[in-house]
Each structure stands twice: as C-alpha cells, then as structure tokens.
Write a structure and sequence with these properties.
By secondary structure, the protein is mainly β. It is built from 1 helix and 11 strands; from the N terminus they run βββαββββββββ. Strand 8 and strand 9 form a beta hairpin. The protein is globular and about 35 Å long.
Length: 136
C-alpha cells in the first residue's frame, strides 16, 4: 500500500497485513490530530518504508509522532517502543483498505459518535493486555 502526506513530499509504503487496526478517543490522540479520534494501522517496522523529511515530537513520555516537515500532516507514530509503527490510514491512496476492529478510550468518545460497527472490542480506557494482535 502506498500513500503520502498532504503535500506529497513524504511517501509511505507498507507491505503485508497490519498487526491490528484500531481507533483511539484519548485526549492525547484527539489533540495531536485535531479530530475526535485517531485511526491507525499497526505494522512491524520492517513492513514500513518512509521517504522524505519528517519531524518528530513526543506527545507523551510513551508516544512519538512523526509528521511531514513541510505540510505538518501526521504520517506515523511509535508507542512505548520503536518495534511497532502506527500508520495513519488517511495517508494512503486507497480508500477503505483498513477496517478497525477495536476502540480505545471509549469513555472519551464524542456523545454524538456511535460505536464503530466493525469494532468487536471497546475499551473504556487503554487495553489491559497488550498483544501484537488485538482483539484475539
């Protein structure tokens, strides 16, 4: 799958299937994206190629976010450790390629936003058990 930032100066390519695809409603994700939730597909680092100049910032002590230096569009994040890339599906050229299967921080979901029908798991806060593939 191929995609890019809004201005096209950063390109992203993923290979294979993601570990998992989710939606997060936490305040950090909401503020970092300027949207009511964050949508992401989680890949191993060896399955992701990013070209172009990105800037990094730490939104919390656990999360590093990477955006295009030119347009500021978010491209990917790393969480806790660098062995998972949270790639933002809105960056990809193909629409509808990823379907979320779980939601985090549903207690922060906008009251007008219903639960995503494809999400078989909803967590009021973070997941209690961290696994590569969630839900199982």
């Amino acid at each position: 799958m191929k995609g890019s930032c809004a201005c096209g100066q950063v390109q992203v390519e993923t290979r294979g299937e993601p570990y998992r695809v989710g939606v997060c409603h936490c305040m950090t994700c909401r503020k970092a994206h300027g949207a009511p939730f964050n949508f992401y597909a989680v890949f191993p680092p060896e399955a992701v190629t990013v070209s172009g100049e990105v800037i990094a910032f730490a939104s919390t002590e656990k999360v590093r976010r990477f955006s295009c230096r030119n347009c500021g569009a978010p491209i990917y994040s790393t969480y806790f450790r660098e062995d998972e890339f949270y790639v933002h599906p809105g960056s990809f050229d193909e629409i509808g390629a990823f379907t979320p299967t779980y939601e985090l921080w549903t207690k922060r979901r906008e009251p007008w936003l219903p639960a995503f029908p494809t999400c078989v798991s909803q967590f009021p806060e973070s997941r209690q058990k961290w696994t590569r593939r969630e839900p199982e």
